[in-house]
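U., I forgot to send this yesterday:
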Amino acid sequence: MEQTPHNTTWSDDQLPAAVAAATSWRGVMRELGLNPSNGGTTRTIRRHAILLGLDYSHFKGNRSWSAAVLRQAVADGRTWEEVLTTLGLSPRAGGERTLIKAHALRLGLDVSHLGRPVALAVDPCELEPDLAYLRRAAESLAATWFMLCGRNVAFPVEPDTYDLLVDMEDGPKRVQVKTTTFKSKDGWLAQIGRRPYSMGNKALLMPYDPGIIELFFIVDGDLAMYVIPSRVIAGRVQILLRTYSKYIVANAAGLMASRSRAA
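Result:
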Protein backbone atom coordinates (compact mmCIF):
# COMPACT_ATOMS: atom_id res chain seq x y z
CA MET A 1 0.00 0.00 0.00
CA GLU A 2 1.24 3.50 -0.81
CA GLN A 3 2.33 5.40 2.27
CA THR A 4 1.47 8.94 3.24
CA PRO A 5 3.25 11.37 0.86
CA HIS A 6 6.34 13.08 2.26
CA ASN A 7 6.17 16.62 3.66
CA THR A 8 2.54 16.33 4.80
CA THR A 9 1.02 17.42 8.10
CA TRP A 10 -1.35 14.46 8.24
CA SER A 11 -0.93 10.67 8.50
CA ASP A 12 -2.65 7.50 7.36
CA ASP A 13 -4.05 7.21 10.87
CA GLN A 14 -5.68 10.65 10.75
CA LEU A 15 -7.15 10.40 7.27
CA PRO A 16 -9.81 7.68 7.92
CA ALA A 17 -11.20 9.60 10.90
CA ALA A 18 -11.30 12.84 8.92
CA VAL A 19 -13.11 11.19 5.98
CA ALA A 20 -15.64 9.58 8.33
CA ALA A 21 -16.37 12.87 10.10
CA ALA A 22 -16.70 15.04 7.00
CA THR A 23 -19.38 15.25 4.30
CA SER A 24 -17.13 16.67 1.58
CA TRP A 25 -13.46 16.82 0.57
CA ARG A 26 -13.35 20.40 1.78
CA GLY A 27 -14.64 19.10 5.09
CA VAL A 28 -11.80 16.56 5.18
CA MET A 29 -9.35 19.40 4.67
CA ARG A 30 -10.86 21.28 7.60
CA GLU A 31 -10.76 18.16 9.79
CA LEU A 32 -7.02 17.89 9.07
CA GLY A 33 -6.46 21.57 9.81
CA LEU A 34 -5.69 22.41 6.19
CA ASN A 35 -6.82 25.21 3.89
CA PRO A 36 -9.99 23.96 2.08
CA SER A 37 -9.22 26.23 -0.86
CA ASN A 38 -5.94 24.47 -1.66
CA GLY A 39 -6.94 22.45 -4.71
CA GLY A 40 -3.61 20.65 -5.06
CA THR A 41 -3.64 19.33 -1.50
CA THR A 42 -7.32 18.41 -1.80
CA ARG A 43 -6.57 16.29 -4.89
CA THR A 44 -3.64 14.62 -3.09
CA ILE A 45 -5.81 13.74 -0.09
CA ARG A 46 -8.63 12.43 -2.28
CA ARG A 47 -6.23 10.28 -4.31
CA HIS A 48 -4.66 8.88 -1.13
CA ALA A 49 -8.07 8.16 0.44
CA ILE A 50 -8.99 6.13 -2.64
CA LEU A 51 -5.71 4.22 -2.43
CA LEU A 52 -6.48 3.43 1.21
CA GLY A 53 -9.94 2.19 0.19
CA LEU A 54 -11.78 4.65 2.42
CA ASP A 55 -15.57 4.89 2.06
CA TYR A 56 -16.74 8.41 1.21
CA SER A 57 -20.17 7.58 -0.16
CA HIS A 58 -21.71 9.75 2.59
CA PHE A 59 -20.22 12.87 1.02
CA LYS A 60 -22.86 15.32 -0.18
CA GLY A 61 -20.73 17.92 -1.96
CA ASN A 62 -23.17 20.70 -2.89
CA ARG A 63 -26.14 18.34 -2.69
CA SER A 64 -28.60 17.91 0.16
CA TRP A 65 -28.24 14.13 -0.10
CA SER A 66 -25.35 11.65 -0.18
CA ALA A 67 -24.61 8.74 -2.47
CA ALA A 68 -25.43 6.36 0.39
CA VAL A 69 -28.84 7.98 0.89
CA LEU A 70 -29.49 7.84 -2.86
CA ARG A 71 -28.64 4.10 -2.95
CA GLN A 72 -31.18 3.43 -0.20
CA ALA A 73 -33.82 5.67 -1.77
CA VAL A 74 -33.49 3.91 -5.13
CA ALA A 75 -33.58 0.47 -3.50
CA ASP A 76 -36.71 1.27 -1.47
CA GLY A 77 -38.56 3.38 -4.04
CA ARG A 78 -41.10 2.23 -6.59
CA THR A 79 -41.07 5.39 -8.72
CA TRP A 80 -38.76 8.34 -9.31
CA GLU A 81 -41.32 10.47 -7.46
CA GLU A 82 -40.81 8.36 -4.34
CA VAL A 83 -37.03 8.67 -4.72
CA LEU A 84 -37.28 12.45 -4.99
CA THR A 85 -39.58 12.62 -1.96
CA THR A 86 -37.20 10.48 0.10
CA LEU A 87 -34.38 12.85 -0.81
CA GLY A 88 -36.47 15.80 0.35
CA LEU A 89 -37.04 17.15 -3.16
CA SER A 90 -40.19 18.12 -5.02
CA PRO A 91 -41.60 15.32 -7.22
CA ARG A 92 -42.18 18.00 -9.89
CA ALA A 93 -38.52 19.11 -9.95
CA GLY A 94 -37.63 18.08 -13.50
CA GLY A 95 -34.06 19.35 -13.31
CA GLU A 96 -33.41 17.54 -10.02
CA ARG A 97 -34.92 14.35 -11.46
CA THR A 98 -32.46 14.44 -14.37
CA LEU A 99 -29.47 15.02 -12.05
CA ILE A 100 -30.52 12.21 -9.72
CA LYS A 101 -31.03 9.78 -12.60
CA ALA A 102 -27.57 10.64 -13.96
CA HIS A 103 -25.98 10.22 -10.52
CA ALA A 104 -27.71 6.88 -10.00
CA LEU A 105 -26.35 5.65 -13.34
CA ARG A 106 -22.82 6.81 -12.41
CA LEU A 107 -23.12 4.81 -9.20
CA GLY A 108 -24.20 1.76 -11.22
CA LEU A 109 -27.55 1.48 -9.44
CA ASP A 110 -30.35 -0.69 -10.83
CA VAL A 111 -33.22 1.69 -11.59
CA SER A 112 -35.24 -0.61 -13.85
CA HIS A 113 -37.91 -1.11 -11.14
CA LEU A 114 -38.69 2.60 -10.90
CA GLY A 115 -40.69 2.58 -14.13
CA ARG A 116 -42.36 5.59 -15.65
CA PRO A 117 -43.27 8.67 -13.55
CA VAL A 118 -46.70 8.60 -11.98
CA ALA A 119 -48.89 11.44 -13.24
CA LEU A 120 -49.38 14.03 -10.53
CA ALA A 121 -52.28 16.40 -10.08
CA VAL A 122 -51.15 19.79 -11.33
CA ASP A 123 -52.36 22.94 -9.64
CA PRO A 124 -53.72 25.71 -11.90
CA CYS A 125 -51.17 28.35 -12.83
CA GLU A 126 -51.25 31.23 -10.36
CA LEU A 127 -49.47 33.71 -12.64
CA GLU A 128 -51.21 36.96 -13.53
CA PRO A 129 -50.17 39.22 -16.45
CA ASP A 130 -49.36 42.84 -15.64
CA LEU A 131 -48.94 45.81 -17.98
CA ALA A 132 -45.87 46.76 -15.95
CA TYR A 133 -44.03 44.12 -18.00
CA LEU A 134 -45.38 45.18 -21.40
CA ARG A 135 -42.12 46.79 -22.46
CA ARG A 136 -40.21 43.56 -21.77
CA ALA A 137 -42.76 41.47 -23.66
CA ALA A 138 -43.27 43.72 -26.67
CA GLU A 139 -40.37 42.49 -28.82
CA SER A 140 -41.53 38.90 -28.41
CA LEU A 141 -45.09 39.91 -29.32
CA ALA A 142 -43.84 41.69 -32.42
CA ALA A 143 -41.61 38.80 -33.48
CA THR A 144 -44.46 36.32 -32.93
CA TRP A 145 -46.86 38.36 -35.06
CA PHE A 146 -44.40 38.63 -37.95
CA MET A 147 -43.59 34.91 -37.76
CA LEU A 148 -47.30 34.03 -37.73
CA CYS A 149 -47.45 36.04 -40.96
CA GLY A 150 -44.81 33.73 -42.42
CA ARG A 151 -41.93 36.20 -42.14
CA ASN A 152 -38.44 35.36 -40.95
CA VAL A 153 -37.35 37.47 -37.99
CA ALA A 154 -33.86 38.19 -36.67
CA PHE A 155 -32.72 40.00 -33.53
CA PRO A 156 -29.56 42.13 -33.60
CA VAL A 157 -26.64 40.36 -31.93
CA GLU A 158 -25.63 43.58 -30.20
CA PRO A 159 -27.77 46.61 -29.23
CA ASP A 160 -28.66 48.54 -32.37
CA THR A 161 -31.01 51.29 -33.56
CA TYR A 162 -33.57 48.67 -34.59
CA ASP A 163 -35.10 45.90 -32.46
CA LEU A 164 -36.04 43.40 -35.20
CA LEU A 165 -34.99 42.66 -38.76
CA VAL A 166 -37.92 41.26 -40.73
CA ASP A 167 -37.70 39.61 -44.14
CA MET A 168 -40.52 41.20 -46.16
CA GLU A 169 -41.45 40.63 -49.80
CA ASP A 170 -39.70 43.82 -50.90
CA GLY A 171 -36.60 43.17 -48.80
CA PRO A 172 -35.53 43.21 -45.16
CA LYS A 173 -37.08 45.87 -42.93
CA ARG A 174 -35.64 47.29 -39.73
CA VAL A 175 -38.32 47.47 -37.06
CA GLN A 176 -38.36 49.60 -33.93
CA VAL A 177 -40.69 48.27 -31.21
CA LYS A 178 -42.47 50.75 -28.93
CA THR A 179 -45.08 50.43 -26.16
CA THR A 180 -47.32 52.73 -24.18
CA THR A 181 -49.30 52.40 -20.98
CA PHE A 182 -50.11 56.11 -20.75
CA LYS A 183 -53.67 56.99 -21.68
CA SER A 184 -54.68 60.64 -21.96
CA LYS A 185 -58.26 61.88 -22.18
CA ASP A 186 -57.91 61.52 -25.96
CA GLY A 187 -56.47 57.99 -25.95
CA TRP A 188 -53.15 56.18 -25.83
CA LEU A 189 -50.07 58.36 -26.28
CA ALA A 190 -46.90 56.66 -27.55
CA GLN A 191 -43.41 58.07 -27.46
CA ILE A 192 -41.68 57.11 -30.70
CA GLY A 193 -38.54 59.20 -30.37
CA ARG A 194 -35.09 58.18 -29.27
CA ARG A 195 -33.02 59.74 -26.54
CA PRO A 196 -29.36 60.36 -27.42
CA TYR A 197 -26.92 59.16 -24.79
CA SER A 198 -26.31 61.68 -22.02
CA MET A 199 -25.37 61.62 -18.35
CA GLY A 200 -28.54 60.92 -16.41
CA ASN A 201 -30.37 60.11 -19.64
CA LYS A 202 -31.91 63.60 -19.68
CA ALA A 203 -31.42 64.53 -23.33
CA LEU A 204 -34.46 65.62 -25.32
CA LEU A 205 -36.21 63.04 -27.49
CA MET A 206 -35.22 63.06 -31.15
CA PRO A 207 -37.08 61.46 -34.09
CA TYR A 208 -35.72 58.34 -35.75
CA ASP A 209 -34.18 58.68 -39.18
CA PRO A 210 -36.65 57.08 -41.67
CA GLY A 211 -33.60 55.89 -43.59
CA ILE A 212 -32.58 53.74 -40.62
CA ILE A 213 -35.98 52.52 -39.34
CA GLU A 214 -38.55 51.38 -41.91
CA LEU A 215 -41.35 50.21 -39.59
CA PHE A 216 -42.64 50.94 -36.11
CA PHE A 217 -44.37 48.10 -34.23
CA ILE A 218 -46.33 49.70 -31.38
CA VAL A 219 -48.29 47.95 -28.61
CA ASP A 220 -50.72 50.03 -26.55
CA GLY A 221 -52.14 49.36 -23.10
CA ASP A 222 -55.08 47.45 -24.57
CA LEU A 223 -52.55 45.23 -26.36
CA ALA A 224 -53.66 46.52 -29.75
CA MET A 225 -50.71 46.17 -32.13
CA TYR A 226 -49.87 48.69 -34.82
CA VAL A 227 -47.44 48.39 -37.73
CA ILE A 228 -46.78 51.93 -38.97
CA PRO A 229 -44.34 52.80 -41.77
CA SER A 230 -41.76 55.27 -40.48
CA ARG A 231 -42.42 57.66 -43.35
CA VAL A 232 -45.98 58.13 -42.03
CA ILE A 233 -44.78 59.47 -38.68
CA ALA A 234 -41.39 60.83 -39.75
CA GLY A 235 -40.13 63.69 -37.60
CA ARG A 236 -42.44 62.93 -34.68
CA VAL A 237 -41.40 61.92 -31.17
CA GLN A 238 -44.90 61.31 -29.78
CA ILE A 239 -48.19 60.29 -31.41
CA LEU A 240 -51.83 59.83 -30.42
CA LEU A 241 -52.47 56.25 -31.49
CA ARG A 242 -56.18 56.60 -32.22
CA THR A 243 -55.13 58.77 -35.17
CA TYR A 244 -53.44 55.70 -36.66
CA SER A 245 -56.15 53.10 -35.99
CA LYS A 246 -56.04 51.95 -39.62
CA TYR A 247 -52.57 50.55 -38.92
CA ILE A 248 -53.82 48.17 -36.21
CA VAL A 249 -52.91 44.65 -37.31
CA ALA A 250 -53.88 42.54 -34.29
CA ASN A 251 -54.92 42.58 -30.66
CA ALA A 252 -53.52 40.36 -27.91
CA ALA A 253 -55.90 41.54 -25.18
CA GLY A 254 -56.75 37.93 -24.38
CA LEU A 255 -53.29 37.57 -22.84
CA MET A 256 -54.32 39.93 -20.06
CA ALA A 257 -57.38 37.91 -19.03
CA SER A 258 -56.90 36.42 -15.58
CA ARG A 259 -58.18 32.93 -14.83
CA SER A 260 -61.09 34.35 -12.86
CA ARG A 261 -62.15 36.64 -15.74
CA ALA A 262 -61.58 33.87 -18.29
CA ALA A 263 -63.83 31.55 -16.29
